[in-house]
Amino acid sequence: MTDHIKIYKADGKWAVRSGGAILGESSNALELHEGDLEPVVYFPRADIAMAFLDQSDKTSHCRHKGDATYFSIVNMSSVTKDAVWSYENPIEAVAEIKGYLAFVTGDTVKVERL
Predict the structure, then answer these.
(1) Which domain holds residue 52?
(2) Residue 10: HSE in the Cβ half-sphere, 13 Å Cα cutoff
(3) Which regions form coiled coils (predicted)?
(4) Cβ proximity of 1 and 10 under 8 Å
């Protein structure tokens, strides 16, 4: 069922920023490739400043990964609603992403390789 998902250690060091704040940097990020979709970088929770994240009520389900929990990014200048997701208990085939966070990138959230 998850043959179209591949997970690799992301090369190099990665950072995530929002509203001028650095939310985290990691040399232990994972890169998830799912079919024809753009790869998604997942950061270990331990490398993210969780004080900037508030768990929201939003959830979603992916038949290939499981149930996702969402967080909003709260900093001094803004709130970016539901900008982070995590599979707290992913299905066994993608168990590597447990304890990792992914970010919805856009105008206010940037994920970049340093």
Answers:
(1) 5-113
(2) 27
(3) none
(4) no
CATH number at residue 33: 2.170.150.40
3-state secondary structure of 46: helix
Structure tokens at 106: 């856009």
Question: Does the reported pTM lie above 0.85?
Answer: yes
Q: How many whole angstroms separate alpha carbon 24 and alpha carbon 33?
A: 22
Whether the CB-CB separation of 103 and 44 falls below 8 Å is answered with no
User: Residue 100 in contact with residue 9, Cβ under 8 Å?
Assistant: no
Task: Count structural domains, the chain.
Answer: 1
DSSP symbol at 3: T
Structure token pair of residue 12: 């190099």
Q: 23 near 83, Cβ under 8 Å?
A: no
Contact 15, 40 (CB under 8 A): no
Given a contact cutoff of 8 angstroms between Cβ atoms, the answer to whether 53 and 73 are in contact is yes
